[in-house]
Write a structure and sequence with these properties.
Strand content of chain B: over 45%
Number of strands of chain B: 11
Helix content of chain A: under 10%
Number of helices of chain A: 0
Oligomer: heterodimer
Radius of gyration of chain B: 14 Å
Structural class of chain A: mainly beta
Largest sheet of chain A: 7 strands, mixed
Largest sheet of chain B: 6 strands, mixed
Helix content of chain B: under 10%
Structural class of chain B: mainly beta
Number of strands of chain A: 11
Order of helices and strands of chain B: EEEEEEEEEEE
Distance between the termini of chain A: 35 Å
Order of helices and strands of chain A: EEEEEEEEEEE
Shape of chain A: globular
């Protein structure tokens, strides 16, 4: 009964380093999302994917890229990390865009 | 475009008192509305959702919310607060968009319960 699994749970990067956050869901959902959560700002959508093979920008896409590898997996890449990208990142999935979303446990990323 | 406004970033209530967390939405089409709860160092968990059926929606842990179109509101209530209700609560909206729907969140309300 895994649901949405994110790896890693914690990461510290130096400015300019790159990394990929992994997300996988086992609920056969079509839609997947990446959000970042910052104090006082709620969850802001970075990218989303309404179905396998499609991705679209959300509210704060700059500095990020995504790949919907298959129906299960949706990865988020930081090509050149910046301190402003220090945040908690959440992956989520839903059966369709209007259905309830299921969230992973989050990745706490610190860029120094 | 759609958006959500949560009034009050912090709310404190005494144990046993009424909990009222406010949410107003903006959507050009009939929306779907959600309340999520986040406990410390955890992901978000769905409390309840409105999907154009009954306007009064009951959720888990004794919470409920009423959809009021005329007021564009979806406030969350619980008659009697419990210590375990201390958490952060997020209101969210989604709207039909030709298969390209996405979930938009408010900025959250941190609920503190006073013993």
């Amino acid at each position: 009964n895994a649901g949405v699994t994110q790896t890693p749970k914690f990461q510290v990067l130096k400015t300019g380093q790159s990394m990929t956050l992994q997300c996988a869901q086992d609920m056969n959902h079509n839609s997947m999302y990446w959000y970042r959560q910052d104090p006082g700002m709620g969850l802001r959508l970075i990218y989303y994917s309404a179905s396998e093979g499609t991705t679209d920008k959300g509210e704060v896409p700059n500095g990020y890229n995504v790949s919907r590898l298959n129906k299960r997996e949706f990865s988020l890449r930081l090509e050149s990390a910046a301190p402003s990208q220090t945040s908690v990142y959440f992956c989520a999935s839903s059966e369709e865009g209007q259905a309830e979303a299921f969230f992973g446990q989050g990745t706490r990323l610190t860029v120094v | 475009a759609q958006s959500v406004t949560q009034l009050g970033s912090h709310v404190s209530v005494s144990e046993g008192a009424l909990v009222l967390l406010r949410c107003n939405y903006s959507s050009s089409v009939p929306p779907y509305l959600f309340w999520y709860v986040q406990y410390p160092n955890q992901g978000l968990q769905l409390l309840l959702k409105y999907t154009s059926a009954a306007t009064l929606v009951k959720g888990i842990n004794g919470f409920e919310a009423e959809f009021k179109k005329s007021e564009t509101s979806f406030h969350l209530t619980k008659p009697s607060a419990h210590m375990s209700d201390a958490a952060e609560y997020f209101c969210a909206v989604s709207a039909p968009n030709f298969g390209n729907e996405k979930l938009t969140f408010g900025t959250g309300t941190r609920l503190t319960i006073i013993p």
